[in-house]
Amino acid sequence: MDKLKGKNMDDLFEAILCLENVDECYKFFEDLCTVQELKAISQRLQVAKKLHAKQVYSNIVSETGASTATISRVKRSLEYGSEGYDIVFERLAKKGLMYE
Fold first, then answer.
1. Which long-range contacts does 4-12 make (Cβ < 8 Å, 24+ apart)?
2. Are 13 and 53 in contact (CB under 8 A)?
3. Cα separation of 100 and 83, whole Å?
4. Distance in angstroms (rounded) separating the CA atoms of residues 79 and 65
5. Cβ neighbours for 10, distance < 8 A, ≥ 6 positions apart
6. Most C-beta atoms within 10 A of its C-beta, which of 10, 66, 67, 99?
7. Residue 95 — φ and ψ, nearest 5°?
8. Does an H or E element contain 56, and which?
9. What is the largest CA-CA distance in the chain?
């Protein structure tokens, strides 16, 4: 994580934390990212949710369109990462938003 830390990243994350709802997120991220970047990020989250739910690679590929390389990268993050997915999944579950 130290590779990422810095003022620019702090500014980005503070900006994201200022957003109050999904509509604001759409507006901000549409301005910030390309459609392809957003699709890639959202695909990784869906892959992570499916891996977290113990789905098999073949189902994840067919349901998300993600490559097995992307699935493997996400799996490594789930197993050896900074536990960011765990934080988000726990909070989504509390809101009743962790479903497949």
1. none
2. no
3. 20
4. 22
5. none
6. 66
7. -90, 0
8. none
9. 40
Helix, strand, coil distribution of the chain in percent, nearest 5: 75, 0, 25
**Residue type (1 letter), 29:** F
Q: Write the CB contacts of 98 (distance below 8 Å, at least 6 apart in sequence).
A: 49, 89, 92
- Amino acid in the structure at residue 6: G
- Per run of 10 residues, the mean pLDDT along the chain (length 100 residues) is 87 98 98 98 97 95 97 97 95 85
**What gap in Å lies between CA 35 and CA 91, rounded to an integer?**
26
The confidence score (pLDDT) of residue 100 equals: 56
CA distance 39 to 49: 15
d(CA 26, CA 33): 10
Joined together, the tokens standing for residue 70 give 């992307």
Structure tokens at 8: 């620019």
